[in-house]
Amino acid sequence: MQAGRCLHHELLAKQSSCSGNLLPYSRLQNTRKATSFCSALEKQDQYAASSSEVEKTIGRRSLHLGMAATLPLTASLLKAPSSQAEPLTLEQVTPKIVPTTQLTSREEQLINVFDTNTYSVVNIFDITIRGRAAAVPEVDVPEGNGSGVVWDQQGNIVTNYHVLGSVLKGLGPNALKAAAGPPRVARVTVLGTDGVQQTYDGVLVGADKSRDLAVVKINAPPEQLRPVTLGQSAPLRVGQQVLAIGCPFGFDHTLTTGVVSGLNREVQSVVGSIIPGGIQTDAAINPGNSGGPLLDSAGHLVGINTAIFTNTGTSVGVGFAIPGDMVTRIVPQLISNGRVVRPSLGIQVASPAVAARLNVTDGALVQLVVPGGAAQRAGLLPTRRGLTGIITGDVIKELNGVQIKAPPDLSRVLDELQIGQQVPLKVLRAADDKAQQEVTLLAELASE
């Protein structure tokens, strides 16, 4: 077959030669169609040939490029390492440490208060109670564990009555009158000014169960004792900053901070007595803080931590302290006499429940009058029966010029007065016809 002619042209040529080269009309039409068809096939063949050449060219170029890109990588992989990687130094693996920032003025103040007063705080616990294992095996928490305050350089230490409750209960009320001398009741650990802790035996000096206070004495060198600086609790304001230092759970010299949350609270102590005028604070107070100091921002004693309100046994932000003014009145008496002698009106005040049933909601209702006491001599009348039923006793509204809104107010004011002092009282008095009138009386305070 000649170049440029397809198989279909060859067949038509043979047919033409057999018929004498004369083509009828129908054959001519077929010939033209075949020619057109062959032309299309030839163009398709030419396009395919050119496409094949392009693909071959691209393939060769891709191969060359691929080889060129692969050669350096292959060479690097086949190249043997010259030596092992050098180990990292400590400097390379240690992050950058920034310098300590300067303390704020408030931080410096807190640090100074702690540094000054931590030597005035001791760890004290009842000698009759053995330590029990804590949740952490390394820590031993005595059940009678508490804190105390160095009162003077003679070795007098102030703490809570309930911290020594077990041993004091066993001694009885006449322990100080024993011929053998003051009984040993505590072990007291003191942090000396040289930074060394020493433990001493503590002997009982005096105790006041009604105000949850006790004083013990240790035989320590005066130069090792740093007494606390006494402040005033009367000027305290709600919101004022306070600090507590103590030995919670046996961790000595622990600082917590907070504010005065409330004043003049009626605090029920651990031993069951009612302490008037209590200071409420949100500074964390936990078991072991009892007996430790509550300080103002100047580092002055404004209270002795005594109790917490909690359902778990640990701090929930509601702690209470005995007001410092009360402490400074009671402790000198305990050191001097071994007990506290308080002025008294010689009355029994009705409980809030009894007063409410008699429609008394303000003041202190007199329920009973002690025969021969200061109240009877002054003319105070108790709650009694009359012709028309129960007659409400006198309701004390004011004592020595101080308003009495509730029974704790009466106790607090009496604590501030002296035996033999004459004080005015204002009372509301009910008659048989239920009418009330205000009466002013004068009473000379006697001892309890």
TrEMBL record:
Keywords, alphabetical: Hydrolase, Protease, Serine protease
PROSITE patterns hit by this protein: PDZ
Molecular functions per Gene Ontology: serine-type endopeptidase activity
Keyword presence, Disulfide bond: no
Lineage: Eukaryota, Viridiplantae, Chlorophyta, core chlorophytes, Chlorophyceae
Family in the record: Belongs to the peptidase S1C family.
GO aspect biological process, one term: proteolysis
InterPro entries: Chloro_Bact_Ser_Proteases (IPR051201), PDZ (IPR001478), PDZ_sf (IPR036034), Peptidase_S1_PA (IPR009003), Peptidase_S1_PA_chymotrypsin (IPR043504), Peptidase_S1C (IPR001940)
SMART domains referenced in this protein's UniProt entry, alphabetically: PDZ
Domain PDZ: residue ranges: 334-405
Gene source species: Dunaliella tertiolecta
Protein name: PDZ domain-containing protein
